[in-house]
Amino acid sequence: MEANKTLIAYETKGGATGESARKIAEILRSKYGLEVDLVDLKKQKPASLEQYRNVVIGGGVRAGKVYEKALKFLENDLSGKRVAFFVSSAEAGTPGSYEKAKAKFVESELANHPKIVPVSTEAFGGRIKILGKTVTDNRDMAKVEAWAEELGAKFTQ
Ligand SMILES: Cc1cc2nc3c(=O)[nH]c(=O)nc-3n(C[C@H](O)[C@H](O)[C@H](O)COP(=O)(O)O)c2cc1C
Questions:
Q1: What is the model's pTM?
Q2: Cα(130)–Cα(122) distance, rounded to whole angstroms?
Q3: pLDDT tens, 68-89?
Q4: Which one of 3.40.50.360, 1.10.600.10, 3.90.45.10, 3.40.50.720 gives the CATH number of domain 2-155?
Q5: Cβ < 6 A, ligand 1 pocket
Q6: What is the pLDDT of residue 68?
Q7: Interstrand relation of 52-62 and 65-66 (parallel, antiparallel or unpaired)
Q8: Residue ranges of the domains in the chain?
Q9: Residue 24 pLDDT greater than 80, yes or no
Q10: Res 7: pLDDT
Q11: Residue 60 CA: which ligand 1 atom is closest?
Q12: pLDDT tens, 92-130?
């Protein structure tokens, strides 16, 4: 395990989670000097988790469920690692629904994995495109950036 190696494993369907994952990677690399591997779980499998000290998992939400591959990833043995988890969900970006969305999509999912004690979790807004046209976008990239900074500080402690 290398102290500065960080994995960001994510599943995206509409692209929002991928964009957040890339933004987080960019900040962890440029501001915190971390070596970051980005893995799109629909296309790749991380070679071995053994090398990573820090693991960030992200997934989108559709039809009331966090994407399956992101949830499946939580079943890995992540003991001894600093783990962070985030979701992209239109409900989380809607004023008044954030707390409920975070409880449903983040806290209750992590409750299924009591061995994981995350250093931080977050629920970001999402984006819905229909026929290539954005119909809803309640993401807040400043919030994603602030969370990446928080992770950077924790991962370099
Ligand atoms: C078919 C469909 C169903 C969705 N269902 C939900 C939902 O149940 N709850 C929610 O908060 N957001 C829902 N959304 C919004 C997504 O969370 C949003 O598109 C988010 O950006 C998904 O992440 P992704 O872009 O990385 O795939 C839905 C979007 C689509 C296209």
A1: 0.97
A2: 26
A3: 999 999 999 999 999 999 999 9
A4: 3.40.50.360
A5: 12-17, 60-64, 88-91, 101, 126-128
A6: 98
A7: antiparallel
A8: 2-155
A9: yes
A10: 98
A11: 23
A12: 999 999 999 999 999 999 999 999 999 999 999 999 999
Which pair of tokens denotes residue 136? Answer: 């809803």
- Sorted by sequence, the CB contacts under 8 Å of residue 152 that are 6+ apart come out as 27, 28, 31, 32, 34
Residue 47 is classified by DSSP as S
Gap from CA of 74 to ligand 1 centroid (Å): 20
In this structure, the residue with its CA closest to atom 29 of ligand 1 is 62
Mutational pocket test of ligand 1: of 89, 91, 136, the residue with most ligand atoms within 8 Å of the beta carbon: 89
Nearest to 151 by CA among 81, 70, 51, 79: 81
